[in-house]
## 1
Amino acid sequence: MTVQDQIDQYIAGQPPSKRDELGALNRIILGVSPGCELWFLDGRNDQGKAVSNPNIGYGSQLIQYVNGESRAFYRVGLSANTSGISIYVMGVADKTFLARTYGERLGKAKITGYCIKVKSIKDLDLDVLEELFANHLREDATGTTPVPIA
């Protein structure tokens, strides 16, 4: 099964409202970055145990861990959760950046250092969200510059 097939299956398996909203977010992201690398993580660890919600990823970056190891990972992610949808913006070194840059304009959302949690995308200004996706997925933001992760 291809990554695109996994993404399509994940979105299709959601309840109708989340399916529609994940589909809309997927279209927005692919609209601003049509050639980005796609990821699908099923939420299971190496032993097959569920450790997180499944998530869709877009773009690529090199994450550098403090122990010297590194790995490729997505730049933007989407995941359905029990209360709505989580949007992950990975590789942001300044943990106040998202809230300072987009918080007041984005709409009703809980914003942490790298995650935007919403009950519904109807509560968001989708133009601002599209701006965030475009800025974070643009060509010069997707290189292999290590992003330190503690």
## 2
Amino acid sequence: MERKITICVYCGSSDRGPAAHRELAVAFGESMAASGIRLVFGGGRVGVMGALADAVMGAGGEVIGVIPNFLMRYEVGHTGLTSLEIVSTMHARKARMAELSDAFVVLPGGLGTLEELFEIVTWRQLRLHDKPIVVIDPDGYWRALADLLDGIIAAGYARPEATQLFDFVDSPAAALARLSDLPVGSTHLDAERL
């Protein structure tokens, strides 16, 4: 059986964000399913996260959720997925999501989304993996993040090549185009050092 490309998506679990961000998640989820790409995500059924998972499932795609046991209450664990893995800790969740994935995509979200993005980018900088990371920013939501990175580089806390650790794109189509030649299963993750 041929292995599918699997993309981990980090995004918000709040319903309070702009409706346009949930619409973005639906468009991306439908595009993933149409492209035969499997979704790995944080396992919740609310906010941008829930909209994304529902869109992939509704379009006939595959979804793997990974959620720590204590968040089953807070994020209302999504039981309508291809599979839902319940793990013991946040650290186990993030390591498992990274292990299952060939690439990472970031949609709008809050502090948790930022934390996941910075961790996976840092892991790439440390050569713990070589998987691509793409941030979808159709409306300037992540512009301040790009400016922050520029400031960190200008202050000398990161080298200019840090901008090559992840890419900003403006649409789901651009994200999928950026990942279109992604080799299945050939990306490296040094799980022993995580």
